[in-house]
Amino acid sequence: MTERTGHCLCGAVSFKLVTEPLATRICWCRDCQHLAANGSVNLLVPADGLSFSGVLSEYTKIADSGDEVTRQFCPKCGAHLFAKSSNRPDFRVVRAGNLDDPSSIQPSMNIWAASAPGWACLDPALEREERQPMPPK
């Protein structure tokens, strides 16, 4: 197991992952595109494997999946850090770009590929899901 650390843009929020990601995926849902202006590389981790310090702000909305998704971000710099879903309370999504070493992970799948813009560069070597995949076991 590799411990991973990260932080927001301004450093006011830092986090630690003490478990391996259950999945590492590039998400092309419209919400991630709004947050990242592109696809977003996300880690799916057990909620109890993530700890953080600092204050988070939250924004909740109903996603295209029908789930209530709460996105957590730094109130100072606005960096989006984590997300949690009403349908999957035992998991957290961690934005890979906030890792201190984002090269320590490798995406294995494109999800919500049906929402990707025509110019998106989807690696054909990665598994592809048109919408939301089932959670890993």
Automatic annotation (TrEMBL):
Signal peptide: none
Family: Belongs to the Gfa family.
UniProt entry tagged with the keyword Metal-binding: yes
Protein name as annotated: Aldehyde-activating protein
InterPro entries: CENP-V/GFA, Mss4-like_sf
UniProt domain CENP-V/GFA: residue ranges: 4-120
Record SUPFAM superfamilies: Mss4-like (SSF51316)
Keywords, sorted A to Z: Lyase, Metal-binding, Zinc
